[in-house]
Amino acid sequence: MTYCAGVLVGGGLVMIADTRTNAGLDDISTYRKLHLFQREDHACLALSTAGNLSVSQTVVSLLQEGLENPETGEIETLLSAPSMFKAAQLIGKAIRRVRTVDGPGLKEAEIRFDVSFLFGGQIKGGPMRLYMIYSAGNFIECSHDAPFLQVGEHKYGKPILDRAVSHGTDLYDALKIALISMDSTMRSNLSVGLPIDIAVIRRDTLVPELVHRIEIGEPYFHDLRERWSTALRAAHMAIPSPPYGRPARSGSRNGL
Amino acid sequence: MTYCAGVLVGGGLVMIADTRTNAGLDDISTYRKLHLFQREDHACLALSTAGNLSVSQTVVSLLQEGLENPETGEIETLLSAPSMFKAAQLIGKAIRRVRTVDGPGLKEAEIRFDVSFLFGGQIKGGPMRLYMIYSAGNFIECSHDAPFLQVGEHKYGKPILDRAVSHGTDLYDALKIALISMDSTMRSNLSVGLPIDIAVIRRDTLVPELVHRIEIGEPYFHDLRERWSTALRAAHMAIPSPPYGRPARSGSRNGL
After folding, report:
1. B3-235, superfamily in CATH?
2. Of A133, A165, A232, B39, which has the fewest Cβ atoms less than 10 A away?
3. Contact A246 B172 (CB under 8 A)
4. Domain residue extents for chain A
């Protein structure tokens, strides 16, 4: 399983991804799911992947090596795209290309063609953007009102993003909240696990400000997990007990 | 969509269920999904349902009216079961009975036979138990280590249960945590909604100590939601910022 999230706030973009892959419960490996594409002074792009590893790796390779445009004969790579929208379209095209080649064989083996991507970043002259691209090659863009997108095992980590992230959130607070969201996911689904890759791209800089892998035992993340657990315990303990039907006031007990 | 949870702690059992049903997004109704079966001094049972409403209602009706045992000819109802285990088996039998009758027609209409139940309570002379029963009629029991079970839209509300509930949790703290779990689910999935039904059965009493419906605008639940939001905000703000690659200390910036 996989969990990847992207958060696009005023200050820039945060991308986070776990690295655990599994082909069955007894075949677990570590693979990078967060990929950076950068050309100095031109573009800084981050792509994270969920789903079938063979499909997502092939898509990433196609985007690096380039797809031939049948109309112009040109080789188009992710870094040659003139805009984020065009780049997202190219990812969709690469997914469909892989489906054409590998889809029938996967179908025969009864393996779902299951893949999704988060794609964020900025290309010179255009705005910073964050997209989610589906296995059919279609895509959506994150909104100002809900400035995050997730792929993979997304539900456990969604409540904290729903509550804590807005467009005005500080860039490194957004990173912190993304780490809390990852922690919630890891607690509830063991197939999402460390190490975690993170990337931060500040708006209008066109370079990654931070690229980091959080390894097992890293003190800050360990401390964040402990503090979050402690704070949640304190938070629910600080809420008054329900006023309904306590035995001490059984006079007010509710009937059937 | 539906969210139901059951928590079995030392003090007893908490059951919670929302009431929203939808046949498509534009056809939303309120239905009770938490049902109590009680015979004084003999048994106090709670059954909550998720999935296809016609199936779950038919199963509940069968359990009330009784199923004929083909071997003995006796009519068996949920309240005539001699043990919680036997009662859970009877629920499984009722599900399979409904599948035999309604399954083919549903299949023809391409509607999944999708139903699941939480079943908890106590029958005189036996221990208090909590089961989850699947659409095939098989079931699992909750464990001492993870003393809760969920059906329906369960992922959003699982992190708080994972962290906060243990067998030693006070009965009304368990209710409070179940309400927080419901709140997290309602925030992230609009198709789970108020009113909420709750039931509390104290161990070895064989009567429901609390049966209550939380309606829209109820002050305690509204206050719980506000306090939880505020506490979560405070909790993540109290966690130190990530030490990685802050621009202020760009000397330590991480490379690709």
Report:
1. Aminohydrolase, N-terminal nucleophile (Ntn) domain (3.60.20.10)
2. B39
3. yes
4. 3-237
The residue of chain A with its CA nearest to that of B37 is A256
Best of B207, B236, B237 to substitute, by most chain A Cβ atoms within 10 angstroms, is B236
Backbone torsions φ then ψ of A9, nearest 5 degrees:
-110, 180
Tens place of pLDDT per residue across chain B (256 aa): 899 999 999 999 999 999 988 776 677 788 899 999 999 999 999 999 999 999 999 999 999 999 999 899 999 999 999 999 999 999 999 999 999 999 999 999 999 999 999 999 999 999 999 999 999 999 999 999 889 999 999 999 999 999 899 999 999 999 999 999 999 999 888 888 899 999 999 999 999 999 999 999 999 999 999 999 899 889 999 999 999 876 543 333 333 3
Residues of B in contact with A184 (CB under 8 A): 159
Cβ contact, residue pair B38, A256, below 8 Å: yes
Q: How many CB pairs under 8 A join A and B?
A: 155
**Would the CB atoms of A162 and B188 count as touching at under 8 Å?**
yes
Residue of B nearest to A169 (CA): B237
CATH architecture of structural domain A3-237: 4-Layer Sandwich (3.60)
